[in-house]
Write a structure and sequence with these properties.
Layout (H helix, E strand, L loop, with lengths): L6 E8 L2 E8 L2 E9 L1 E3 L3 E2 L3 E16 L7 E15 L6 E9 L2 E8 L7 E7 L2 E3 L5 E4 L12 E4 L6 E2 L2 E4 L5 E7 L7 E6 L3 E6 L8 E4 L2 E2 L2 E7 L2 H5 L3 H5 L14
Antiparallel strand pairs: 1-2, 2-3, 4-5, 4-10, 6-7, 7-8, 8-9, 9-20, 9-21, 10-19, 11-18, 12-13, 12-15, 14-17, 15-16, 16-21, 17-18
């Protein structure tokens, strides 16, 4: 759960497949949403079991060199799910969920292991199973530049869209799906399945491969910011908190 207890995340396996779901104040935000990968050598999509769940909490602050606020709060509850295939060679991966009061992020970890050293990702099976056909705003994927105008559409009418994807639910909540700490990995777009389920769609290489990976490796965070009004999405620091800290050691020369 989130530090204030309003967000609650549930993870389970069903028929060997891995799912998560999210609720806020007892009301579902995401229905059962799938997790996993298609590799060139194997699938990490079925015959899965959860071997361990680890919990961790953090509460602290950090200082921005420039930005809207100098001091940023970073408070979250974290759960790491360790997953293993039941069939040989029993490849392993982890999913790390980090819940803040205004949303959550999760990413996959590939620990170093004999059966998974250098490998090829063909597809990521991450889903966001929405509760309802929300009103959505997004930049169409075929736009030639990121300064294109956002277009409003029901989720069910979306094609292949770029993130961030912003939505308003029938209950008046505002959601934004995006990613954080995108490093050495393809950008995540979204496609629609069954009218209300959004699926990760990675931008591939010209040969159709999504990513060439060398373990140990962590993917970018998949994020959802949740607010009671549109401004809550703008003032959220969730994605900044999930990005890596600045690598600039001496910042005395920066004058904001």
């Amino acid at each position: 759960s989130s530090p204030d207890g309003n967000l609650c995340l549930h993870v389970e396996t069903e028929n060997g497949k891995l799912y998560y779901e999210l609720s806020r104040n007892g009301k579902p935000i995401l229905d059962k949403s799938r997790l996993g990968f298609i590799l060139k050598e194997d699938t990490l999509a079925g015959h899965l079991e959860i071997t361990e769940a680890l919990h961790h909490s953090f509460s602290g602050t950090w200082e921005q060199i420039w930005g809207e606020d100098r001091i940023v709060e970073n408070n979250y509850h974290e759960m790491t799910i360790r997953v293993q295939k039941t069939s040989a060679p029993k490849r392993k991966f982890n999913v790390v969920f980090r819940l803040f009061n205004d949303g959550f992020g999760f990413r996959y970890e590939f620990p170093e292991q004999e059966a998974l050293k250098d490998f090829v990702i063909m597809d990521e099976l991450t889903e966001f199973a929405l509760i309802g056909d929300h009103k959505a705003w997004s930049i169409p994927y075929e736009a030639h530049f990121y300064e294109a105008l956002y277009e409003a559409s029901p989720v069910s009418k979306l094609g292949w869209v770029s993130t961030p994807l912003t939505m308003e639910t029938n209950d008046g909540l505002f959601l934004s799906i995006h990613e954080a700490n995108l490093t050495d990995y393809p950008k995540m777009n979204l496609t629609v399945k069954d009218s209300a389920t959004l699926c990760a769609s990675l931008v591939p290489w010209s040969n159709g491969v999504a990513a060439y990976i060398k373990a140990p490796f962590v993917t970018p965070w998949r994020t959802i910011v949740i607010g009671d009004k549109p401004g809550d999405l703008v003032t959220s620091y969730l994605m900044l908190n999930l990005n890596e800290p600045s690598k600039i050691k001496d910042t005395s020369w920066i004058k904001p």
